[in-house]
Amino acid sequence: MLKKKNSYVVAVAGATGAVGREMVAILDERKFPVAELVPLASERSEGERIDFDGKKWTVKRLTKESFSGVDIALFSAGASRSLEFAPAAVEAGTVVIDNSSAYRMDPEVPLVVPEVNPHALARHKGIIANPNCSTIGMIVALKPIHDAATIKRVVVTTFQSVSGTGKKAVDELARQTTALFSFKEIEKDVYPHQIAFNCLPHIDVFLDNGYTKEEMKMVNETKKMMEDDSIRVTATAVRVPVFRCHSESLNIETEKKLSADETRALLAAAPGVIVYDDPGKNLYPLAIDVAGKDETYVGRIREDESIENGINLWLVSDNLRKGAALNAVQIAERLIA
Amino acid sequence: MLKKKNSYVVAVAGATGAVGREMVAILDERKFPVAELVPLASERSEGERIDFDGKKWTVKRLTKESFSGVDIALFSAGASRSLEFAPAAVEAGTVVIDNSSAYRMDPEVPLVVPEVNPHALARHKGIIANPNCSTIGMIVALKPIHDAATIKRVVVTTFQSVSGTGKKAVDELARQTTALFSFKEIEKDVYPHQIAFNCLPHIDVFLDNGYTKEEMKMVNETKKMMEDDSIRVTATAVRVPVFRCHSESLNIETEKKLSADETRALLAAAPGVIVYDDPGKNLYPLAIDVAGKDETYVGRIREDESIENGINLWLVSDNLRKGAALNAVQIAERLIA
Prior knowledge:
2 copies of one chain form a homodimer.
Chain A: E1 8-13, H1 18-29, E2 34-41, E3 49-52, E4 55-58, E5 60-61, E6 72-75, H2 79-91, E7 95-98, E8 127-129, H3 133-149, E9 151-159, H4 167-181, H5 213-226, E10 232-236, E11 246-254, H6 260-268, E12 273-275, H7 287-290, E13 296-303, E14 310-317, H8 321-336
Parallel strand pairs in A: 1-2, 1-6, 2-5, 6-7, 7-8, 9-10, 12-13
Antiparallel strand pairs in A: 3-4, 9-11, 11-14, 13-14
């Protein structure tokens, strides 16, 4: 697997995308021991220059031959590119940390959030999967609650920002907003409906059971990472006109009773979680405040009086950082620790 | 009570506000038999002119003496004005339909959605309360499900538009949006935090139990109108950067099993509900489409696999029309029927 070194050759596949750029920035910010950065992208972005560690690095085209000498590759170039190129990387001796959905439910591939199931890393066979952004934000808050009181069921509704779709969607929200204020016709390229001043209950494709793929990711990835199929999750995933950060409304039913104060104390002590909960002072997590933060911010913690043992809460996490790039880099940090 | 006539003197208290204007427009649109319109407002709006039935009507100042000869008064001037002026109106022989929260939970006052509990109107003593906008939108869809399968519990998360707060909030969202696109500082007058490109889990004031008043309205008003305290509801109410219409994500647990198809059929046959549910064609209710519509639009209807008898759905209703002005006018129509 990964040999211990003083520094590592690190490739970023999809280096010019929204998450790829964040990956490079976070490697820099956290002083990951990078001997050489290998930014990879499609033909279109070949030759672009990426800033890292005070130098410029030239983007190369992603091919099956890109991985010779690469120790770690962070992939964020979409599921089909992961399926095409990750096996070649593994063959070349590279450890792949894949941000796409391609390998997440593969029983041979660990799906890891370092605060939740770091032990799963030990059994990787060259590929480690990074969970879906809306699941990562949620599971760091669910884990301490599950450990203390055993979660029976979660009902979650998400408020997901357009950056989760990518850079084009960020541009689309901005363009539609300015068009509406200029009394111009809006253009729809990325989403099937207007996203400006609207909420779309539609993220990723619809499946036969009426759920979207995004909703089922939250159900299935949670079970896999908790290593507990008895946790029942039902999800409604909604796109909102917000640029960055996913907010989520959670209703959690536990075996053991937890008071709001006990829940607050548990979460305050949990890694990767910040309790931000003082409604009397109008303090609760907000997308605009959590942008750029590493932790899941949790507030509006209150007992659900409609069931014996229930908690409602509101959480916000930065979908590009913890929801994608940061979690991938944290996995890499664990691998070299 | 109300004497049968060919046409009625109708006062609108708060006639220049967002809901008041909608009330006047809906009286006109539905050809309510108005002999005379009496638009009332605070001193500030005195003398303004309101269009109705092809004529201009001058806004008068709301006082305790405003109601002599008035048959029906639609109030939408805030709870404190309702408490101050509604008793004087009743004393003058006027039937008051109050859109504020002032009398909703008063056991002497019927709280009515005509599609849900029209029989409650019979026992009014001069005041009839119009429910909260987020409750009205939801309860027209819950009623047929409760009748067919007995609802045990509802977990609801709302996506509420700024028009629910009033005209000033609509202006604030517009102003903040343009300021952000002009790289100017945003101003916050109505909400404690930026609403543009953000979601605020805070509607109305916070109570001691950690819930907002808005959330508890959904719990308590639902029980009162269903005349069934065994229906358990837990709510998270969220303000989103949308101008008009409230969207809601509902998780509903029933005594009797309902399939998604059975739920669709029930809702399609229910008064005040339109099923708009064809995800394969990207058809689901959207705030921008439901604006100006009378019905609650329901889509994303699917079985909740996390419990024995559960349904998830997404609904959208126009908070100014059915959520406020239309429901009040429909109550008036029932009174004169």
